[in-house]
Amino acid sequence: MKNIFLALCLAAGFFGPGEAPASDEQIEIFDIKKGKVVQTVPVNEEVRKEVEKMLEGVTGIYAEFNPVPDKGYMVKVPLDPPVRVQNKWLNDYAKEVIVIFPEYENPHLLVFDSRANSFFLTFHHDVDKFLKKIKYTPKRSGNRIFSKTIISS
After folding, report:
1. pLDDT, tens only, 67-109
2. Residue 48 and residue 7 in contact, taking contact as beta carbons nearer than 8 Å
3. C or N terminus of the chain, fewer CB within 10 Å?
4. Is 121 in contact with 62 (CB distance < 8 Å)?
């Protein structure tokens, strides 16, 4: 429960202003263990297309008890204009997506719709392209790289 609260707080304010995304907003990369934004990147069309592909590849609801891990990172991507999402779990516009990269499992999404409802979703999409487009290389943790072509199913 603490992790769900953390995720919602991060999305609502700790990443930045809680109002609707503006076109000059930045992509923010948040290190969960450090508890802070470690990098910002301008939103661009290539990144937006990668997020759209993730949304098209949604496979279900993330069903684990703690959707926000103790270690890993999250990437907040504001979507202005919002992206239409139509599947059996969500039929609305996504205004913001947070890609959650846990240290020891596949990434998943936290999606905010047009009414600020939140959805934790699994997806199937190669995240390496997304990471290259935001120019972020995850740090190694032990023998594991946080992400190397991992996908959710």
Report:
1. 999 999 999 999 999 999 999 999 999 999 999 999 888 999 9
2. no
3. N
4. yes
| Complete edge-to-edge strand list for the sheet that includes strand 91-102 | 36-42, 26-31, 72-86, 91-102, 108-113, 118-123, 58-61
Strand partners, 74: 30, 100
What are the residues facing 40 on neighbouring strands?
A: 28
Q: What is the DSSP string of 86-126?
A: ESSS-EEEEEEEEEEEETTS--EEEEEETT--EEEEEE---
pTM: 0.80
Calculate mean pLDDT across residues 113-120: 95
Residues, the chain: 153
- Single-letter amino acid, residue 90: L
Residue 90 contacts by C-beta under 8 Å, 6 or more apart in sequence?
Answer: 58, 111, 113, 119, 121
Residue in the block written with tokens 């703690």: 66
The tens digit of pLDDT for each residue in 39-54 reads 999 999 999 999 999 9
